[in-house]
TrEMBL record:
Cross-referenced CDD domains: CAP_ED, DMSOR_beta_like
Lineage start: Bacteria, Pseudomonadati, Pseudomonadota, Alphaproteobacteria, Sphingomonadales
Residue ranges of every copy of the 4Fe-4S ferredoxin-type domain listed in the record: 658-690, 727-756, 792-825
Source species: Erythrobacter longus
Entries under InterPro entries matching the protein: 4Fe4S_Fe-S-bd, 4Fe4S_Fe_S_CS, cNMP-bd_dom, cNMP-bd_dom_sf, FAD/NAD-bd_sf, RmlC-like_jellyroll, RnfB_subfamily
Keywords in alphabetical order: 4Fe-4S, Electron transport, Iron, Iron-sulfur, Metal-binding, Transport
SMART domains found in the cross-reference section: cNMP
Pfam families: cNMP_binding, Fer4_11, Pyr_redox_3
Annotated protein name in UniProt: Oxidoreductase
Span of domain Cyclic nucleotide-binding: 377-483, 501-620
GO molecular function terms attached to this record: 4 iron, 4 sulfur cluster binding; metal ion binding
SUPFAM superfamilies, per database record: 4Fe-4S ferredoxins, cAMP-binding domain-like, FAD/NAD(P)-binding domain
Length: 839
């Protein structure tokens, strides 16, 4: 049995190495236990040659540096995986020639290290812990520092075939894989770096597909996300957005896309989808977690001590995984054990600046605890996670009546109220009509989800303290905290129901509905309501759109479109009859399912709501009957209309808010639309009339649809893409950095990367002095000069001629009326009208 150590450090990742290095520097009795035959398994498993970053750049590293010529603790600076491992191995007393070393300065301390020391159990109390190893030995220590991370417990795919031998959670050396079809699942930093390593070396000849469940890269560094989208644009790999695994089979993966299932051939699948703490092992020590959720972290004191006295947790297992953070924690916990005094974290000066404008001169700890305690979406976060989140946020105090943001202002950030309350001005014509939002709640979630401009002016109703989370920080929070995800969903559901049903409802009125609501993701083409079925639930379209059909067998009559923000299913609930039509997802969508009985109870309590629901139901019934009555004996007309409607759905009309259509029976091919577009936008047309698809007489050119939930906005690092007051999606060329993310994300190919064109002269200068370029496109000579790939380019797309009197130039310039811009509630009417003309 070993002697009693002052501290036993379990795990030799960055956090454990730093703690052990500081213990050795202080000549504290210690032992570093590592279950593998090498140090720092997490970094050891990084792909060969990976560059390890020392971020955040403005955070001081306490574990390194010199004081009076003596090195203070474990060294770390950015460099290759091999260099970092070599330096760290130099500090450890390991007599093993397999350990890589770095021929640099040998530091003046040795770490007492034991490899192949897998811990199977921990017993005892503070002052006398017994650590049992797999090989039968027992280590005794007064205190324990757990720095084991979570990488040993990778998440598995949630689909059939998740245990297929093609699947691996890591990539060692990209050069070991040649001429393979590889699928990478996960778009955090690890997944992106694996994909780039396999795809960007042409000599390897790999075909790489990256699956992104969403459309952004909230968990990745900006540089990694930019490099990935650039590689996609340049053809090195393919990113498949809004795509998730459905099944793994020999040599292929079935994936669920926006438009249905597809099969991708593959030889290897790399799953970088996160990992979970080894909860059973940790709880056996008597350590409590912040919640029952499988991804929750242990409860920790500010000094990193768990609910088990004498056991400390640092590093990724504490929810703070960046290497510099981990190493600072290792230093801090050893200093606490050595001196008995808490060490102010290294990020304290940074957080002091975040909170410096808040009232009362309170400490960082005070504000962190206030925000964590008072704000619902922060309930599941540890103090360490709160510190990281606040570094990316803006904390502000507002006086009563002070405006936080105004109606129609651009913005995609999320706000949370830590103290006080706000008043939402719901009537633009009467600011005195307001709805309160109280302490602990959030606002701004509509801009976060859809990118639309602010829907109302919001003022502080009293002395109020809020925190503003950038879109990236908010999405990262929602993606990493189940409690935050649940809170945002609950609040957004409540507000969507209130906005949709109106009729003077309050949150208390709809609480039974909100509490029983379920958000469901619906794949493209999947049936939500089946004609003839007897279910009685009500649905709200949260994202995407639904198509309504009626018929038998393969013969289906298209009845209409239900875009995001509308409800359906009320007919069967109110009438009590079987479903009269089939409703299926037009594109990959999300719906809110509400119990029909709860909706009926609400109708009984609110006569105004009942009247409104009956009116909507009658309008829909009349519309359906009108379409059905158009069907002749052979079904010709309705088939034409259904085919046309299906075509429009396939071309993105199911998620459009404004789209350009061209009636080819009227179009004379003059290209006035393109010329007018170019003349209105510095010589760069945002319209390609000839390309695009046509059904019968109706042509959908390459032009922006201004989607309800724009794909292009989901990952714009400088936040250069905004929505106008009328829903138009604009790109600010002044702030655009030319990363190309928007172009990669757009499924309709309507965004181009173009150099900044020469300034247009006035019409008089052009006519009288020949100054150029004149009307229309930029000259060919300029385009040729700027065609080189090295020329800086920025994103351009249709902006609906925002700010130009008279509206879209393409429509105004059409001499025959062939070009028309339509919104979802009009395009099917337009299709029916033109179908009548055709008939």
């Amino acid at each position: 049995m070993s002697d009693l150590f002052k501290v036993a450090i379990i795990g030799s990742g960055p956090a454990g190495m730093s703690a052990a290095g500081q213990a050795a520097k202080r000549e504290m009795s210690h032992i570093l236990l590592e279950k593998t035959d090498h140090l720092s398994d997490t970094i050891f498993k990084y792909q060969k040659g990976k560059h390890v970053m020392a971020t955040p750049s403005d955070l001081a590293l306490r574990a390194g540096g010199y004081e009076e010529g003596v090195h203070q603790g474990m060294e770390f600076e950015e460099g290759t995986r091999e260099r970092i491992l070599g330096i760290w191995n130099k500090h450890c007393r390991i007599e093993d020639e397999r350990m890589p070393t770095y021929e640099g300065e040998v530091q003046d301390f040795d770490i007492n290290t034991r490899l192949n020391a897998e811990v199977v159990s921990v017993e005892g109390e503070k002052g006398n812990f017994s650590i049992k190893l797999k090989d039968g030995d027992t280590i005794r220590a007064e205190t324990i520092v757990l720095a084991i991370g979570t990488q040993g417990n990778p998440n598995l795919l949630r689909c059939p075939g998740a245990d297929h031998p093609m699947i691996t959670p890591q990539l060692d050396d990209p050069e070991d894989h040649i001429d393979k079809h590889v699928i990478v699942v996960g778009t955090g930093d690890a997944g992106i770096e694996n994909a780039l390593g396999l795809a960007t070396d042409p000599a390897l000849g790999n075909t790489v597909t990256v699956l992104n469940r969403g459309t952004d890269f909230a968990k990745a560094k900006i540089k990694n996300a930019t490099d990935l989208t650039s590689a996609d644009e340049e053809g090195f790999l393919n990113i498949s957005y809004r795509t998730s695994p459905a099944e793994v089979r020999d040599g292929e993966m079935v994936v669920e896309t926006e438009t249905g299932q597809e099969i991708i051939p593959c030889d290897m699948i790399i799953t970088r989808i996160g990992s979970q703490p080894p909860r059973k092992f940790i709880e056996a020590m008597g350590i409590e977690f912040t919640s029952e959720d499988r991804s929750a972290f242990p409860k920790l004191s500010p000094e990193f001590e768990t609910t088990k006295a004498g056991v400390f947790v640092i590093g990724a297992l504490a929810g703070y995984p960046l290497i510099k953070h981990c190493m600072n924690q290792g230093y801090d916990v050893i200093e606490f054990l050595a001196t008995g005094e808490a060490v102010k974290p290294a990020d304290e000066p940074l957080l002091e600046k975040v909170f410096e404008n808040l009232p009362g001169g309170k400490s960082v700890d005070y504000w962190l605890e206030l925000y964590r305690t008072n704000v619902d979406i922060f309930a599941g976060l540890s103090t360490l996670q709160m510190r990281e989140l606040m570094l990316d946020s803006i904390c502000t105090a507002f006086a009563p009546g002070e405006v936080i943001f105004r109606r129609d202002a651009p913005g995609s950030s999320l706000f949370a109220i830590a103290q006080g309350s706000v008043a939402v001005e719901v009537n633009p014509n009467d600011p005195s009509i307001t709805v309160p939002i109280g302490q602990g709640s959030i606002f701004g979630e509509v801009g976060l989800v859809s990118g639309r401009r602010r829907g109302a002016t919001i003022r502080a109703a009293e002395d109020t303290v809020v925190v503003e989370l950038s879109r990236k920080a908010a999405l990262k929070l929602i993606g990493s905290s189940p409690e935050a995800d649940e809170a945002v969903k609950r609040i957004s559901i409540e507000r969507q129901i209130l906005q949709l049903f109106g009729s003077g409802l309050t949150p208390e009125d709809i609480k039974p509905l909100t509490d029983s609501a379920v958000v469901e993701e619906i794949s493209a083409g999947k049936v939500v309501i089946q004609e003839g079925a007897d279910d009685k639930d009500l649905f709200i379209v949260r994202l995407g759109s639904m198509r309504v059909e009626k018929g038998e067998g393969e013969r289906q009559t298209f009845l209409g479109l239900i875009p995001a923000g509308n409800f359906f299913g009320e007919m069967g609930i109110i009438d009590g009859l079987p479903r009269m039509s089939t409703v299926r997802a037009a594109v990959k969508s999300e719906v809110i399912r509400l119990p029909g009985e709860g909706f009926l109870d609400l109708l009984a309590q609110k006569p105004q709501l009942r009247e409104r629901a009956l009116q909507i139901m009658d309008d829909r019934r009349r519309s359906n009957e009108e379409i059905e009555s158009r069907q002749d004996k052979d079904g010709g007309k309705v088939d034409n209309f259904s085919g046309l409607a299906s075509f429009l759905f396939d071309e993105g009309m199911g998620e459009a808010t404004d789209a350009l259509l061209i009636d080819e029976r009227l179009c004379i091919g003059c290209d006035n639309c393109e010329k007018a577009c170019a003349d209105s936008h510095d010589g760069l047309s945002r319209l390609d009339r000839e390309t695009g698809k046509t059904f019968a007489y109706l042509h959908v050119p390459i032009s922006c649809r201004h989607c309800e939930h724009p794909h292009c906005m989901t990952d714009c690092p400088p936040n250069a893409i905004q929505r106008g007051a009328d829903g138009e999606v604009n790109i600010n060329r002044e702030t655009c950095i030319g990363c190309g993310n928007c172009k990669s994300n757009c499924p309709y190919g309507v965004i181009n990367m173009e150099p900044v064109p020469p300034e247009k002269p006035s019409l008089l200068s052009w006519m009288m002095f020949g100054s150029g370029p004149g009307p229309g496109e930029a000259p060919y000579s300029w385009r040729k000069e700027n065609s080189d790939p090295g020329v800086a380019k920025k994103a351009v797309k249709c902006d609906m001629c925002a700010g130009i009197e008279g509206g879209p130039s393409c429509v105004r310039a059409c001499p025959t009326g062939a070009a028309i811009r339509v919104s979802p509630d009009k395009f099917l009417t337009f299709a029916k009208m033109t179908e009548d003309v055709e008939g």
